[in-house]
Amino acid sequence: MRSENELEGITLLGNQNTQYGSGYNPALLETFVNKHPDNEYVVTLDCPEFTSLCPKTGQPDFGRIVITYIPSERMVESKSLKLYLFSFRNHGDFHEDCVNIIMKDLVNLMNPRYIEVRGIFNPRGGIRILPFASYADSEHQSLRQQRLLERLKEV
After folding, report:
1. Is 15 helix (H, G, I), strand (E, B) or coil?
2. Assigned domain for 57 exists
3. pLDDT of 34 higher than 70
4. Which listed residue (47, 61, 98, 105) is catalytic?
5. What is the CATH number of the domain that holds 31?
6. Of residues 54, 93, 97, 137, which has the active-site annotation?
7. Is 54 known to be catalytic?
8. Which domain holds residue 112?
């Protein structure tokens, strides 16, 4: 079991008075200590109900965001991630922008060894948009290049 000290800074999990904001808010993100930084392992977080707004029309866009990362010292707390992703529901940006913003916010938060963020958006106007953004520390650059090539081959 984690000690109180290890849970310090996690304020949203277990909070029965959760506030749902009306705009994009990276300050919602919280982390906890990775108890296994000596192991390289993969964490995948899947948000099948992501919503944002078209920056031109203001119409809602719906999609799925899949975040996969290899943690270093800190990990993202899932309830804070959920609230953060919900904060995009009134945010107007293109799909590609949302995916890159999410990736950069998580890199700034956790400084992971490797992270990728995939967007799988519902078709609009007969076109499905599938943006992919990734980051890797110096030791994982070959993984990043491999994953980018895999994504290009999927098309």
Report:
1. coil
2. yes
3. yes
4. 61
5. 3.30.1130.10
6. 54
7. yes
8. 26-154
The answer for residues whose C-beta is within 8 angstroms of residue 139's C-beta and 6 or more apart is: 113
* Domains identified in the chain, total number: 1
DSSP one-letter string for 108-125: HHH--SEEEEEEEEPPBT
The pTM (predicted TM-score) of the whole model is 0.89
Q: For residue 5, is it within any domain?
A: no
Q: Answer yes or no: is 107 within a domain.
A: yes
pLDDT tens per residue across span 92-129: 999 999 999 999 999 999 999 999 999 999 998 899 99
Query: What are 4-27's pLDDT values in tens digits?
Result: 777 777 776 766 667 766 689 999
Evaluate whether residue 55 is within a structural domain.
yes
Judge whether 97 counts as a catalytic residue.
no
In order of 10, 19, 27, 130, 151, the CA distances from 147 in angstroms are 32, 37, 29, 14, 6
